[in-house]
């Protein structure tokens, strides 16, 4: 896995590992537009491998989705106390049927000790207008 941060810029090939905080890691090339104790606003670009309808019987007749680049805007707000809200919107940068995705989430954090935090959260999403989310028969 690769993770590099230089000032407001990050580049990583995986979002499934953690540096200091899970919200520090956004897969692809990222730029923090605003980062404070309470608010973070970021933009990111990442590669999307697409989808082949031949991979599964459920995907038959849904069509292939070509590999693409996705652009993502995200914001996180730390509320009073241990609560955090987040929202993100991702678009198909080159119009290759990847569509748009949106999600929102809420989280609760509790420090456990030096360098450790318990985080519990839930998210709603993705809301989408994409062929990637179509089910068989639609």
What would your notes on this structure say?
The protein is mostly beta strands and 138 residues long. The protein has one domain (3-133). Helix content is 0%, strand content 54%. It is built from no helices and eight strands. The protein has strands at 3-6, 9-12, 28-35, 39-48, 68-78, 83-92, 100-113, 116-128. The protein is globular.
How many domain modules? Answer: 1
By helix and strand content, what is the structural category? mainly beta
Largest beta sheet: strand ordering: 1-2-3-4-5-6-7-8
The mean pLDDT is: 78
How does the overall form come out from the CA principal axes?
globular
Rg is: 17 Å
Low-confidence stretches: none
Q: Give the oligomeric state.
A: single chain
Helix count, per DSSP? 0
Distance between the termini: 38 Å
Tell me the number of strands: 8
Portion in helices: under 10%
How much beta, percentage-wise?
Answer: over 45%
Q: How is the biggest beta sheet arranged?
A: 8 strands, antiparallel
What's the helix-strand series?
A: EEEEEEEE
């Amino acid at each position: 896995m690769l993770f590099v941060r230089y000032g407001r810029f990050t580049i990583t090939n995986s979002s499934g590992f953690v540096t200091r905080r899970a919200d520090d890691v956004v897969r692809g090339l990222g730029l923090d537009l605003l980062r404070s104790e309470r608010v973070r606003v970021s933009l990111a670009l990442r590669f999307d491998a697409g989808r082949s309808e031949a991979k599964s019987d459920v995907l038959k007749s849904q069509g292939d989705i070509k590999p693409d680049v996705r652009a993502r805007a995200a914001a996180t707000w730390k509320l009073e106390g241990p609560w955090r809200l987040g929202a993100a919107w991702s678009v198909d940068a080159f119009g290759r049927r990847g569509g748009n995705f949106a999600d929102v989430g809420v989280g609760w954090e509790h420090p456990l000790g030096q360098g450790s935090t318990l985080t519990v959260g839930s998210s709603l999403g993705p809301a989408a207008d994409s062929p990637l989310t179509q089910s068989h028969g639609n």
